[in-house]
Amino acid sequence: MNDRFLRACRRETVDTTPVWYMRQAGRYQPEYREIRKKYSLIDIVKIPELCVEVTTLPVQQLNVDAAILFSDIMVPLDPIGMPFEIRSGIGPVVDHPIQALADVERLHDLDPNDLSFMTETIKILSRELPVPLIGFSGAPFTLASYMIEGKPSRDYLKTKAMMYSDPKTWFALMNRLEKTIIDYLEIQVNAGAKALQIFDSWAGALSPDDYREYVLPTVQRIFQGISHLDVPKIYFGVGTGELLFDLKQTGADVLGVDWRVPLKEASPRIGNEIAIQGNLDPALLLAPWDVLKQKAMEIIDAGREHSGHVFNLGHGVFPTASVDTLKRLTEFIHEYGQRV
Length: 340
Fold this sequence. Notes:
Elements: H1 4-9, H2 30-36, H3 41-46, H4 48-62, E1 67-68, E2 85-87, E3 91-93, H5 101-105, H6 116-128, E4 133-138, H7 140-149, H8 157-165, H9 167-191, E5 195-200, H10 208-214, H11 216-225, E6 233-237, H12 244-247, E7 254-256, H13 263-270, E8 275-277, H14 289-304, E9 309-310, H15 323-336
Parallel strand pairs: 1-4, 4-5, 5-6, 6-7, 7-8, 8-9
Antiparallel strand pairs: 2-3
């Protein structure tokens, strides 16, 4: 197996800079769009043969150094008693959001039997993939925001209002999500996932003080709760440049960085005891090749100065991106990123 991704996560010597792309399986691929004409996103997640195909496709097309399980961060919520739908043009929608402590108390533990589709998919992928498989979960704040707002939000007013005005309910929800996320990630590793990533997509909406008070302790307990799992553990948030000093306290082995902070500035904030992942602006995939190439070089050069670097985007691949561009970029990263 190509293990350079795992080696970089562990801050070991690699032959070249490893690369994978968040949302590397998705709507920019003609093959995926054809599948989506017949199946919903959740259908694909729950049919192992389809999920294996979609997860594997970018590895075959792009020659990336890791695959990430095709799924959605909302998947573990239904099994604990929080049904949701993914509605076209909106995203995840929860019809009965969390409003009071009683709503949290009606949630229950994960039953692994409810995730048998996922474990079967991971077992197949772990046998067939030539690269490591990354399992993942949403982070507590991001999942809580969907559970409280009931749908995607720009301002997270209901979520923050609960944090400030009803801390008892907020921390009860954090405790519930802590156990859910630990159990969910352990199920994935036991099935064969070789690395884990926790996505805190909306943590950048928080001030450093609020992150430290209302979120960080839960994230720390999650990483402590999965510390016995012998796989690299990545934590990624969007808009978290001002939180990097706090994120290094989470217990993650790797911190993902979005494009809003240059890698050469993010690196000293994180320190060399933790590997770094990132951080090309996804919009650059639409730029002329010379522009994209120059930005990639700058990121690889900055990554060389850090102890452990995995090239990635600062967020997910856009639907308008080109397979050919991503393939060319991957080839260039491997060529330019060779250690001499």
